[in-house]
Design a protein that fits this description.
single chain; about 450 residues; alpha+beta; GMP Synthetase, Chain A, domain 3; 13 strands; disordered C terminus
């Protein structure tokens, strides 16, 4: 076992182990430690404690001292210089026309080094920029290109869940995340739903993978043929977090989806086993195929119970024949009774509404008739009666005389008196030149 203290150099950075060198450092104290790049100023996040020798990376650097007031003032001055360096470098990037995005700036504790972090899609030639920055700050300049995940960790923000980024809150190292993890957890493979703000797959897919792998071992697969307390069926949906699955029963008399816990299900096989069951059931040889037949429901008692439930005087406070049925048959009878009763109510309601609509439309039509419409209707009736009277006054003999025998013998009947005779229409013949022929 090795005694160490854990020190972090920025709010979202990784914690490193250091040798306390006989000092007692409490959590939250500022310390100055020795690193491979010189002295650095940091914060102790875990005081003196012991860890396994395998967890320590040699050589173990020591803690130089607990920070003094002068060290604190020097660190604060470095924070102010970081803001100035950030603005100046951002302005120069625009002037040089470089395709890079400046993310953060860190000033060394001793003031002899400035570190600039940036992101870019490709390689950037920033030699002229480095010369300009070195002449401005009179220190060693280092430009370091980082990825989009490191950018999100430095800047921070809120994720799709509404909480702070995991990488900026408690994740100190990035682990590879694959699309297989999303499939294991039953998530949608839509990139917009499983990607974080940085554009990469969400980090939470990785550290939740272990829990989901343990749940998947207990859960049946979708499409599996299972045995349930209500009979045999196929798994339609699985909820890993709640530990239950929806099953469509295959008994024929019950096609509803029912929910069962994983402990209530006994997996018999896959889709092939289901096909064997259906074939054996239709041929009546379930026992030969290795299946236990489900008990058929009592149809006569179920119908009798349904008739009692749907009657107007039905009340569940009385004793009905459904009490003699099994629990499953009782539940089915009650459900069917309620369904038929609701259908009857909805039908009566629709008929009542339709009659009211017809009555209102009839009243509206009678109300909308104006005196002008009534006058026109009376006039048309008078004209019709006068025309009928004029036809009655003409005798059959007059009709026969004027028509000269309407029928087959006279194919060109004469018009009646009082009617206008149409003039014959003759086509005028023209010659080829367009003039009338002689």
């Amino acid at each position: 076992m090795t005694e160490i203290v854990s020190v972090r150099f920025n709010e979202r950075g990784k914690a490193y182990y250091f040798d306390p060198s006989g000092l007692t450092v409490d959590k939250g104290e500022k310390v100055v430690v020795e690193t491979s790049k010189g002295l650095e100023y940091g914060e102790c996040i875990y005081g003196n404690h012991e860890v396994d020798d395998e967890a320590v990376v040699q050589p173990l650097r020591p803690v130089v001292r607990i920070a003094t007031d002068a060290d604190n003032r020097s660190a604060q001055a470095g924070k102010e210089k970081e803001k100035e360096a950030f603005d100046y470098c951002k302005q120069k990037i625009i002037e040089f026309g470089l395709e890079m995005k400046l993310v953060s700036v860190e000033y060394g504790f001793e003031g002899n080094k400035v570190l600039f972090f940036f992101t870019s899609e490709g390689r950037v030639d920033f030699r002229e920029l480095v010369k300009d920055l070195a002449g401005k700050f009179r220190a060693r300049i280092e430009l370091r290109q980082i990825g989009v995940r490191d950018e999100a960790k430095m800047l921070g923000g809120l994720g799709v869940c509404g909480k702070q980024f995991c990488c900026s809150q408690f994740l100190h190292e990035f682990h590879p995340v694959s699309i297989k993890m999303a499939k294991t957890q039953g998530l949608s493979l839509n990139p917009t739903k499983i990607s974080g703000t940085c554009g990469r797959l969400m980090c939470c897919l990785k550290y939740e993978e272990v829990a989901y792998e343990d749940l998947v071992k207990k859960a049946p697969k979708i499409g599996a043929f299972v045995e349930t307390p209500s009979g045999k069926g196929s798994v339609i949906n699985v909820n890993l977090l709640r530990g239950n699955a929806k099953v469509r029963l295959e008994d024929g008399f019950d096609t509803t989806l029912k929910t069962f816990t994983f402990d209530e299900l006994d997996v018999l096989g896959g889709k092939g086993r289901r096909a064997e069951y259906i074939t054996a059931r239709d041929e009546g040889r379930l026992e030969e195929a290795g299946f236990t037949p489900s008990p058929p429901p009592n149809i006569s008692r179920t119908l009798e119970a349904l008739s009692m439930i749907t009657s107007e005087t039905a009340s569940f406070d009385h004793n009905y024949p459904i009490d003699d049925l099994s629990d499953r048959d009782q539940t089915e009878a009650r459900q069917q009774g309620r369904k038929q009763k609701n259908q009857g109510k909805s039908k009566d309601k629709s008929l009542k509404e339709r009659s009211l609509q017809d009555k209102s439309s009839k009243d509206k039509s009678l109300r909308d008739k104006s005196p002008k419409d009534k006058m026109q209707r009376d006039k048309s009736q008078r004209d019709r009666s006068q025309r009928d009277t004029s036809l009655d006054d003409i005798s059959l003999e007059e009709i026969s005389e004027q028509s000269n025998g309407i029928g087959i013998s006279n194919p060109h009947p004469q018009p009646l008196e009082g009617t206008k005779k149409k003039k014959p229409h003759y086509k005028r013949r023209r010659g080829r030149s367009g003039n009338s022929g002689k």
